[in-house]
Design brief:
InterPro entries: 6-hairpin_glycosidase_sf, 6hp_glycosidase-like_sf, CBD2, CBM2/CBM3_carb-bd_dom_sf, CBM2_carb-bd_dom_sf, Cellulase_Ig-like, CenC_carb-bd, Galactose-bd-like_sf. It holds the Pfam family Glyco_hydro_9. One of its GO terms (molecular function) is polysaccharide binding. Keywords: Carbohydrate metabolism, Cellulose degradation, Glycosidase, Hydrolase, Polysaccharide degradation, Signal. It catalyses: Endohydrolysis of (1->4)-beta-D-glucosidic linkages in cellulose, lichenin and cereal beta-D-glucans. The protein is an alpha+beta fold. Among the domains are: about 160 residues, Galactose-binding domain-like (Jelly Rolls, Sandwich); about 90 residues, Immunoglobulins (Immunoglobulin-like); about 100 residues, Immunoglobulin-like (Sandwich). Helices cover about 25% and strands about 25% of the residues. The chain is built from 16 helices and 39 strands. Strands 12, 14, 15, 18, 19 and 20 form a six-stranded mixed beta sheet that branches. β33 and β34 form a beta hairpin. α2 runs antiparallel to α16. The longest helix has 22 residues. The radius of gyration is 29 Å and the shape is globular. About 55% of the residues are buried.
C-alpha cells in the first residue's frame, strides 16, 4: 500500500504539462470500468469499504483521519517503464465535496513515488486526468501501484470512481508468468517408494541426454538416459522423459540434474502423501461459516471469530430473506456450512458434490479401504472426541447446512450470499452486507436429496434419529424435484456470487435416485435408476464429472455399495470405469507432463486441477475394481503433476514444495493485499491453468500462453488461482486414497464381513455374516474388530465371543469351522451401550471387505 514514506516523495514530483503525447495506448489498469460487478483487483485500506454501485466503485471512508494516505483505494501489479509517459484518468464524485489525490508509485518498501496530483471532487460526476513520466521501472506487472488517497477528513464520506485508466509506455504488459521455472521438472514434494518415479526434461535435443540423481549431500546415487519425446502441445515445451524408478532408497533432498540444469529438491517417502490426506481435509474447518475458527486447531495465524452469526457488523445468516424480486414470503436460518470459495457465498450445488466426496471417501474406505484413517481424533476439529469418525463430523457441518436450505415446499434454495460482491480482502466477521437467498432450483434440490440419502446410510449405525431426519429430507426433496423437474437456476443471478446455472438436470435425477435406492431399496427409486439414460455409466467419458455433471457419482455408489441390482449391471458400471481409465492412461502416455485431463474440446478450463483429481478418482476406482497396478500408478502421476511435475515448476497445493502456491484468490487468506492476513494454509488447492483467461490479471499477464502455462500465483487472478470446497474435496478423496496405497502392493481381500445392528435404548442386536471370497477353504476362523463406542457384548451365538476393552474376537464353533470358497456363516450377539458400528474387520489376521 502507499505508505507515508511514498507520499512525502510524491509531493515533490514535477508533472509534465497536460496534453503531452503518449508513447503508446497500452492500458495498465485492470477492471477500471467495473462492468463485471466486482471490485477485484482493487483493494482498500482500513477504514475504507469498497462497493460496486451503479457500475462505479464507491468507497465508504470513515472520518477522523489525519492524512490523505490514511484512507486508500488502490491496485497493485501495475507495470511502469522508466522514462515513459503515462496518462492517469478517471471519473469521480463524492457525497460531500472533498479533495483527493491520485498517485502512482511502488507497492512495497521503500515505497518510492512516481507521481501524485490533487483533485477537488464535487457531488457531480466529472472527468479528471493528468500525465506524467515514470522515474521507476516495474515491467510485466511487478511492484507498481496506483492509488487514490481519500483520508484527512473529519467526517465520513463516500467517494465513487469509474472509468479508471492508465495508458502509456512502449511495451505491452503481460506475456510471462513471474514464477521461475526449471528445465528438470519433478514432483516438488515426494515420490513414494515402490512406485514409478518419472520426471520431465525441457530440451530441444533430439538425442538422449544423461541424467544424474543426487542425494542431499550432492553425491550421485543413480544415472541414466532420457527418452526424447519432442514437442508437447499442452505445455508448449519440447520434452524428454526421465524414468528413475529403479532407485528406491527413502530419503530427503534429492535432486535430478541434466548437464548444468537441476531440479527443485524432493523426497523419496510416503510421509508427505499421508500428511496431505489430513491437510487437504483441514481446509474444510478453515472454511466453516457460523463458528469461531479456534487457534488450537489451526494456529493463531488462521484463528478468527465466527462469521455471519448476527454479531455486528454482520447482518447474519439466521433470518435470511429471499431476493427482493422473488418475494418468497419466508426467511430461513442458514447459519453454518462452508464458505464455498474465495468469497463468502454458500452454494448448494458446490457444497453438495463436496460433501458427497468426503462422505464417499469414508464409505469407500469402509468397504475396500482403511476406515481407521478417519477415526475419531484424526482431524484437528472441535468434534474430535465425540465418538464419531472425524470425516463424518466434518461432512456433517455442510450436510446440516444443506438441510437448512430446504424451503417449506421441499425444494432447496440454490445459494445464499451477499447482496453485492464484497471487497478483497474482507474477513467473514467484518462483512457488513445483507445476505439474500436465491431462488430454489431443481439442481440444488436433487443435490440435497442425494447427499442427505447418502449421509442417512452412513449415520444409520451412529445416530438413528439423525439418519431418519436425513432420509425424510431426502425423500421430500426428491418428490419436490419430481414435481418441479425443470426449475433451473438463473444464469443472470451473478451479483454478489456466482450463478452456477445448470441447463441439464437428468444427471442430478439419476444421482439422487441412485443414492435413495441404495439407502432404501425402494422399487420406485430403482425404476428411476434403471430407466435413466445415464444408467450403467452411459455418460462417463474422459471429461469426467463436476458439480454440473453428477451422474457418475450415482454410478460410483451403485458400484461400491451392495444394492440388489443385477450383478451384470454392476459389472457393466465397473467396466465403464476401467474403460475410461484405460483411455486416460493411453493419453497420458503421449504427454510431456502425464495428466488425466481431456483438453481436446475446451482446453484447460476454470478449476482444471479439480478435473485432474476427479479423473484420478476414476483411475483409483478402476484399481479398486480390478487390482491392476497401472491404474494406481496413474493416480500418482496425477498427484505428481499437481505437486510440481508441470511446465510451471509449481506445486498447486499450498505448503507442499519449494515453489508452492501462496496467493490464492480468497477474501481472508489475502497476505498479498494485506500483510496482517495469512497466505493459504497447507493443503489448499489452486484452481489451476485456465486457457480461457477469464479475469483481468491473466488477461494482462498471460496473453498467448500455452494451455498448461495459463496460470499465475496472484490473488487477483480468480479464474486460475481461486480455491473451492468442491476442488479440495477432490484433493482430499484422492490424497486419502493415495495415502492408503502409498507403495504397498494392494490385493483384493479374500474375506467379506457384513455387519447389521438393530439398536434400541441402551443396547443393540447385531447379525454378522462371514464370507470366504478367496479360492481356498478355511479350516477354522477368527474374526476380530473394535467397538468405537461403549458397547459391551452380553450374549453371543454361533461363535465363541470374547471382549477385552473395545477389542472383540469371535472364533468358530466345531460345526462351522470350515467355510468353502463363496460360502458364508452367520453369527451374532446382543450388547449394551452405544456407539458407531465397527469400521474394520479381520479374519485370521487378514483385513476383510465389508458388504
Amino acid at each position: 500500500m502507499l505508505a507515508s514514506a511514498l507520499v512525502v516523495t510524491l509531493a515533490a514530483t514535477t508533472f509534465p504539462a497536460a496534453g503531452t503525447a503518449l508513447a503508446a495506448d497500452y492500458e495498465r489498469v485492470l477492471n477500471g470500468k467495473f462492468d463485471t460487478g466486482a471490485a477485484d483487483p482493487w483493494w482498500s485500506s482500513a477504514g475504507v469499504t469498497n462497493r460496486i454501485t451503479g457500475g462505479e466503485l464507491c468507497a465508504a471512508v470513515t472520518g477522523g483521519t489525519t492524512n490523505p494516505w490514511d484512507a486508500l483505494v488502490g491496485q497493485n501489479g501495475v507495470p511502469f517503464e522508466s522514462g515513459q509517459s503515462y496518462t492517469f484518468s478517471f471519473d469521480a464524485h463524492a457525497t460531500a465535496a472533498q479533495t483527493i489525490a491520485a498517485a502512482a508509485g511502488e507497492s512495497v518498501s521503500p515505497y518510492r513515488g512516481i507521481a501524485k496530483q490533487d483533485f477537488a471532487l464535487t457531488t457531480a460526476k466529472q472527468h479528471y486526468t493528468f500525465t506524467f513520466t515514470s522515474t521507476l521501472d516495474f515491467p510485466d506487472a511487478g511492484n507498481g501501484q496506483v492509488a487514490f488517497q481519500l483520508g484527512g477528513q473529519a467526517t465520513d464520506n463516500t467517494i465513487c470512481v469509474d472509468n479508471v485508466s492508465l495508458v502509456g509506455g512502449v511495451k505491452p504488459p503481460g506475456g510471462v508468468n513471474p514464477n521461475p521455472t526449471k528445465k528438470v521438472q519433478v514432483d516438488l514434494v515426494a515420490y513414494v517408494p515402490g512406485l514409478p518415479k518419472r520426471a520431465t526434461l525441457v530440451s530441444t535435443a533430439t538425442t538422449p541426454q544423461t541424467w544424474t540423481l543426487k542425494n542431499s549431500a550432492g553425491a550421485a546415487v543413480a544415472t541414466g538416459q532420457t527418452t526424447p519425446r519432442g514437442a508437447d502441445a499442452a505445455s508448449g515445451d519440447s520434452v524428454h522423459l526421465i524414468d528413475f524408478s529403479s532407485f528406491d532408497t527413502p530419503g530427503t533432498g534429492y535432486t535430478l540434474s541434466v548437464g548444468a540444469d537441476s531440479s527443485f529438491p524432493f523426497d523419496i517417502s510416503a510421509d508427505p502423501v499421508k500428511k496431505l490426506r489430513y491437510d487437504s481435509l483441514a481446509f474444510f474447518y478453515h472454511q466453516r461459516s457460523g463458528i469461531a475458527i479456534d487457534a488450537q486447531y489451526v494456529g493463531a495465524e488462521y484463528a478468527r471469530p465466527a462469521g455471519h452469526v448476527n454479531v455486528a457488523p454482520n447482518q447474519g445468516d439466521n433470518n435470511v430473506p429471499c431476493r427482493a424480486d422473488l418475494a418468497c414470503g419466508y426467511t430461513l436460518d442458514v447459519r453454518g456450512g462452508w464458505y464455498d470459495a474465495g468469497d463468502h457465498g454458500k452454494y448448494v450445488v458446490n457444497g453438495g458434490i463436496a460433501a458427497w466426496q468426503l462422505l464417499n471417501s469414508y464409505e469407500r474406505a469402509t468397504r475396500v479401504g482403511d476406515p481407521s484413517a478417519f477415526r475419531d481424533g484424526t482431524l484437528a476439529i472441535p468434534e474430535k472426541s465425540n465418538g464419531v469418525p472425524d470425516l463424518l463430523d466434518e461432512a456433517r457441518w455442510e450436510v446440516d447446512f444443506l438441510l437448512k436450505m430446504q424451503a417449506p415446499d421441499g425444494m432447496a434454495h440454490h445459494k445464499v450470499h451477499d447482496a453485492a460482491w464484497t471487497a478483497l480482502p474482507t474477513r467473514p466477521e467484518l462483512d457488513d452486507q445483507v445476505r439474500r437467498l436465491s431462488a430454489t432450483s431443481t439442481a440444488a434440490t436433487l443435490n440435497l436429496a442425494a447427499v442427505a440419502a447418502q449421509a442417512s446410510r452412513l449415520w444409520r449405525g451412529i445416530d438413528a434419529a439423525y439418519s431418519a431426519k436425513l432420509l425424510a429430507a431426502a425423500r421430500k426433496a426428491y418428490a419436490a424435484a419430481k414435481a418441479n423437474p425443470a426449475k433451473l437456476a438463473d444464469p443472470n443471478d451473478n451479483v454478489g456470487g456466482g450463478a452456477y446455472d445448470d441447463k441439464t438436470v437428468s444427471d442430478e435425477f439419476y444421482w439422487a435416485a441412485a443414492e435413495l435406492y441404495t439407502t432404501t431399496g425402494d422399487a420406485t427409486y430403482r425404476t428411476d435408476v434403471t430407466s435413466s439414460p445415464h444408467y450403467k455409466a452411459a455418460g462417463l467419458t474422459r471429461a469426467g464429472f463436476f458439480w454440473g455433471g453428477t451422474a457418475p457419482l450415482g454410478d460410483i455408489t451403485l458400484a461400491l455399495v451392495p444394492n440388489g441390482l443385477p450383478a451384470a449391471d454392476v459389472a457393466a458400471i465397473k467396466a465403464a470405469f476401467t474403460s475410461v481409465a484405460d483411455q486416460h492412461l493411453a493419453a497420458m502416455a503421449t504427454m510431456g507432463y502425464a495428466t488425466p485431463y481431456d483438453n481436446s474440446t475446451d482446453g484447460y478450463v476454470w478449476g482444471s486441477n479439480s478435473g485432474v483429481l476427479n479423473n484420478a478418482q476414476v483411475l483409483a476406482l478402476a484399481h479398486d475394481f480390478t487390482g491392476a497396478a497401472k491404474y494406481r500408478d496413474g493416480v500418482f502421476e496425477a498427484l505428481h503433476y499437481l505437486l510440481g511435475r508441470n511446465p510451471l515448476s509449481t506445486s498447486y497445493v499450498a505448503g507442499y514444495g519449494d515453489q508452492a502456491v501462496h496467493n490464492v484468490h480468497h477474501r481472508f487468506w489475502a497476505h498479498q493485499n494485506d500483510p496482517t492476513l495469512p497466505t493459504a494454509p497447507a493443503g489448499s488447492l489452486s484452481g489451476g491453468p485456465n486457457s480461457g483467461l477469464q479475469d483481468p490479471v491473466v488477461q494482462r499477464l498471460l496473453v498467448g500462453c500455452p494451455q498448461q502455462k495459463c496460470w499465475v500465483d496472484d490473488i487477483g487472478a480468480y479464474s486460475v488461482n481461486e480455491v473451492a470446497v468442491n476442488w479440495n474435496s477432490a484433493l482430499a478423496w484422492v490424497s486419502s486414497w493415495a495415502a492408503e496405497k502409498s507403495g504397498t502392493p494392494v490385493t483384493k481381500p479374500d474375506c467379506e464381513v457384513r455387519y447389521e445392528a438393530s439398536k434400541y435404548q441402551g443396547g443393540l442386536t447385531a447379525h454378522v455374516s462371514l464370507t470366504n471370497t478367496g479360492t481356498t477353504a478355511w479350516n477354522g476362523w477368527k474374526l476380530a474388530f473394535a467397538f468405537p463406542g461403549t458397547q459391551r457384548i452380553t450374549q453371543g451365538w454361533s461363535a465363541n465371543w470374547n471382549q477385552s476393552g473395545r477389542d472383540v474376537t469371535a472364533t468358530n464353533m466345531p460345526w462351522n469351522a470350515q467355510i468353502d470358497p463363496g460360502k458364508s456363516v452367520y453369527i451374532g450377539f446382543n450388547a449394551s451401550g452405544t456407539g458407531a458400528d465397527p469400521a474394520a474387520f479381520t479374519i485370521n489376521g487378514k483385513k476383510c471387505g465389508t458388504g
